[in-house]
Amino acid sequence: MDEPVAPRGLQVTDAEAAHVRRRYRSERRFRLLGAGAIVMALTMLALLVTSIVSTGWSAFYQHSLKLEVYFDPAVIDPDGKRDPDTLRSANYTSLARAALKAEFPEVEGRRDIRALNGLLSNGVDIQLLKMVQADPEIIGQRLPVELIASDDVDSFLKGFIDRDEQESNRRVKDNEIAWLDALEAKDAVVAKFDALFWTSGDSREPELAGFWGAMVGSFLTLLVTLGLSFPIGILAAVYLEEFAPRNKFTDIIEVNINNLAAVPSIVFGLLGLAVFLNFFGLPRSAPLVGGMVLALMTLPTIIIASRAALKAVPPSIREAALGIGASKLQVVTHHVLPLAMPGVLTGTIIGMAQALGETAPLLMIGMVAFIVDVPGGITDPATVMPVQIYLWADSPERAFVARTSAGIMALLGFLVLMNALAVLLRKRFERRW
Amino acid sequence: MTPPAVVLAARVISAVMISGVEMDFWLLILIVLGIAGYGMVRGQRKAVVVAGGTPSRLHSLPSYHGLFVALWAALPALMACAIWMSTKGVIIDALVQGALPEAAQALDPDRLALLMSDIRNVATGDIVRANPSPEIVSAAEHYRRLLQYSDYAMIAIVAGIAAFGLHLASRQLGLDFRARNRVERIATFVMIAASTIAVLTTVGIVLSLLFESWRFFSRVPLDEFLFGLQWSPQTAIRADQTGASGSFGAVPIFAGTMLITVIAMLVAAPLGLMSAIYMSEYASPRVRAVAKPLLEVLAGVPTVVYGFFAALTAAPFIRGFGEGIGLDVSSESALAAGVVMGVMIIPFVSSLSDDVMNAVPQSLRDGSYALGATRSETIRQVVVPAALPGIVGALMLAISRAIGETMIVVMAAGLAANLTANPFEAVTTVTVQIVTLLVGDQEFDSSKTLAAFALGLVLFFVTLTLNVIALRVVRKYREKYD
After folding, report:
1. What is the ipTM of this complex?
2. Does one domain contain both B268 and B409?
């Protein structure tokens, strides 16, 4: 098509027709390529989600062994005074082991007994302790209790450990499988929704490790972030959009905010480490510092979104208010800001969602510590959801893979919720002028 | 019965409020707010009284008089409180240190710092040492006492400042007092202060990085860091230790970062660009309405999730695939981390390119169609060249994103600093090294930890430069068609 062709009416030569066909073919190819790129990117997304869900669903339920436990007064409370300290320090593990032994009286020898005891989680003592603390009356009774199984047993019962595998390569040995089969025949193996995952803190034992501590940590951290970045962000946006004169100083601020939005998050972590921890001596691993670092990080997002929302309020509103004698600040606080609020809130929620998923800067300020207790305040050592996911992903036990994926699902759930809220806000309240 | 969610929220909030150390702080805030609230009421009342019951004689509404008094009560007090909180640690440390026995004071600074941190831990009961020596216990007792005095003194002084501010402000009220103008001036100052926080953050980043890097470069020469080929940051802790000389040549790390970035861009650039082209030129509004937000979800997924995906799914898959065709692939190959990072970056490329292609005026397309060009010919020869500066800007932003990305590489790339261009081998990146050097307990003065700040400085300046150039390119291009 480079050379101009003289008009010849409707006559088209074969060569020209072929040329046009070729061009149309390349057109179709190009179009397919574009659609293919989108399909491929979305396939990746689908792959990501399915791989997480398929590995994570199994963490939502947990196997227990239903055994007849004798709450032996001689072990729990020898003097019969029901003193809380005595109750707390009793050897509950031995009760659980006795119950297991009663089920399999034929097991002899130290190694076999140790293997038998290995069916149960190390957390059964706390489980029994809590039962006794809740109701001391049960001391001296014989009750069926669903004792948490160990992570290997749980993995086996969920079918992740193949029983046809050679015994030496298998985490669950032949004799353990025989015991489990015997228990299963008696309907003593129960699979139930795993409440522990949603109510407890971290643990070295996968079957006891919970996400609640990280969820509370994330909540406290976001509380600090919101408390700092929301007011500061609004004040800065209002100043830059409504009051600031156009001069060098405000130019610098503006360029600064745009650049801060693109600084790698880990650099904010370095800032937090050098300034908040080493210079001001604030506590390590605390939601307070984590929240401050994340606040600095989300500030540009909130400022940029708030400015856009303020800009969208038509000038006629300002002029009308000024016309009836309002001062500039009154115009902003009585009219412009309330009208811009949906946009401001949307931007804030999106910024908070970003902060919720952020990991790297929190590693720098020590929120990676192994913390069992659920944090009670903003200066307690804590971890947050994404960091907990990172920690679990690093653990070698098979059962932690499922916990990691389940944690990811919980985190993604919160993110979806927050973004849905933002979309809803925008749809419901945003006005087009 | 109250719903469980409310009970839970109340429990969490009360836990936040009363958790030990912060109690005095919250009490103080409450006192100051109480005084300010009282000032609000009192200012308002006084204004009405001064006006003889007809507020319209006042220059400003009575509520502004109240607000003025309240602000004067609260702001100076809160500022004093912030200053007190940030300096009390240093002052108490100095006092306790001064009271230590002679022998302890003669210790070298490092040991002394260790001793002080022991004392602090015993005093706050953070870590219960097995058996602290009597000197430490008595010093801790001293420390705790000082801390308590400081808290009481702070409450007294800050509350005094609040009351004094209230008194001063309410004396000024009168018929002609311009309360509204004064309040608005204070508000403007607060707003200016809030907007400078962004600048202060940048200054803080630059200063802290520069300061720590300067300390690093006083131990390790700059040219060794920039051009050295050997990276093994293990330094000897004891003088007689062998095999841990510590060498800080960062070239392998820069090379590893580049390798992973190039792989990521090889995935993200074509996929992102073609998606953007389809989205802006071909897709019907309905397809666009579904596909665009879905693509953006890729950018909203937390990076730790990608890291987990890369380590658990992508890396074994690539390894198995490589073995299938007879290649030796490391389980922490640069390829796995790079490809997953590329997927994450797709929306950064696509949404910005989409925007700039949408900004190309329709008249250019129409002109091209009128000459008989097909759509793809128009796109390739008119739209993309016209949008090229914007696309280049988008790619540069994406590159800066890839260089600064941390979690994917921490979880899926290696730790060893190999100088290689083979994507099947494990390489390490700047961000991975920063994380590994700084996570875990170590003293803050070793070259090892300082090296992380030097790497951070390089990272900051490289990404900053890329961003500044990219933003400028995009903006300049936009002006052309406006």
Report:
1. 0.88
2. yes
